[in-house]
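Recap for those who missed Tuesday's class. We walked through two folding examples back to back. For each one, the amino acid string is listed first and its predicted structure tokens come directly after. Nothing is annotated here on purpose, so try labeling regions yourself before you check the end of the notes.
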Amino acid sequence: MNPFYEGRLPLALARGGLGGVERRTEVVAVGTGREIRNAVWAHGRRRYDLAGAIATLDDIAQVFAFFEARRGRLQAFRFRDIADCKSCAPSAAPSATDQALGAGDGARTAFPLVRSYGAGENAYVRAIRKPVSGSVLIAVNGAPAADDAWSVDPTTGVVMFASPPPPGALVTAGFAFDTPVRFDADLLEVRTEGFGAARFATVPLVEALV
């Protein structure tokens, strides 16, 4: 069985859920009262719980079917985090100049998609490995790249140029993307709330490193 399923958990199930990004930091207080802080994880990890988003029996059946097909925690899949699923602000439309992918050197043809959070030397750069097919826009030095000049692998997020961009040319991109996740439990429990309605006690998802 492929460890990753390229299908997406139905978008309607993301509304009303709880989710965010987690980091792991060690904090040690020394004798003077000052703190020593160390980043244990180099990258953040997203976590979600969709229990609050699910209420109808049709929704329940849909999630059960998806859960069974993924064999519980076994197979990862795509999830649309509606608060963070674009190269730009959630209310805006992606532009080909949203995110800098790097500069050409006359030989390089592969440019992985990334999304930056913050600015300057403190910005965090996140690898985007699950772009939405048909959503990626590419520009070189601010000018849209011809469609036949590049391609993108929607399963890895790597942009490939047919010919290397010129030395010093800035490659930028705009796109929509999914977060790769898996179920974080091998048990889904349902609480009935009346005729035609029920609710999962919890539907935990955790970002899968792919």
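Example two. Treat it independently of the first, because the proteins are unrelated.
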Amino acid sequence: MIALVFAMVLLQAPAVPPPPSVQSPAGSSVPGASPSSGVERNPVDLSGVVRIYVESFGTDETSKQMEAMLISSFTGSKRFIITEVKSKADAVLKGSVTQKSSQEVHAYGSATNVGTAAGSHSGSISGSHGSISGSSVGGFVANHAGIDDSSVNTETINDSQCAVRLVNSDGDVIWTTTQESKGAKYKGAGADVADKIVKQLLRDVDKRQSKPTTPIVATQPKSS
């Protein structure tokens, strides 16, 4: 009788759910694993960045102009998407910009001088039987010519420097660069810096994508 009652109690007891499983980066589940169990995570790295959110560089006019030029350069590259929704971005672009102006003075001068001088003199005295006669001739010629040419030009030079970094959703810095310029032939210093930043990112992304990747294998904690 006691055995029958004990069997009925076991049948009526609620089922214990199995331990939760944690998805590995490859999509397979590891039963009983937890975030502290040693399962490796796979945050977005540089090779996976496509959609970028540009965070404000500052409220001054120079920072706003740099943000606009970077957005234009990223869009023109055809490799990245600029989003204004931060939660949809693969990475956030942060940075700061400094710009200063200086003046360079260029002076040029040349002079040409020409001068001539000439002079002559002659005289004679003669006399006989108490009479004296004489003559004298003299002359002088002087010429001078001069040409002076000089100019002074003042040129304003704009120096621009920008330091940026890409931060993924985990808050990890995955890329950084600092570029500077005094201006290109057909563009200002700020636009030239923006183009240099995007070109550097493209080069670094291509290098990262060309490297072989090591697959991440989920590991289970050792049983004690």
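Answers for example two:
Helices lie at 2-12, 61-76, 189-210.
The chain has three helices and seven strands.
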